[in-house]
Design goal:
This protein has a two-stranded antiparallel ribbon. The radius of gyration is 15 Å and the shape is elongated. The protein contains two helices and two strands. The relative contact order is 0.15. A hairpin with a 2-residue loop joins β1 and β2. It has a domain of 51 residues. By secondary structure, the chain is of the alpha+beta class.
């Protein structure tokens, strides 16, 4: 059984930020986004972290919804 890999990318002003994670690593990627935003040497803002965090959570919700649809309840 293979594990799906999620990819988030931000490209701006010649800089690329790419985050790859699986469904078991959501908290880790969210922590990484915060760490990048906290680093003054990076051009990665708290706004960037918030937008990408929102996308992570939306992907997670979409996946949970898809799993629910795959196994409908008969009750």
């Amino acid at each position: 059984m293979s594990r799906a890999v999620n990819v988030l990318a931000l490209v701006r002003d010649g800089q690329r930020y790419v985050f790859m994670y699986d469904d078991n690593s959501v908290e880790t990627v969210l922590s990484s986004l915060a760490a990048f935003a906290s680093d003054p040497e990076l051009d990665f803002t708290w706004y960037d972290a918030a937008m990408l965090s929102q996308r992570v959570r939306q992907l997670q919700a979409d996946e949970e919804e898809a799993q629910t649809e795959d196994f409908p309840s008969f009750f």
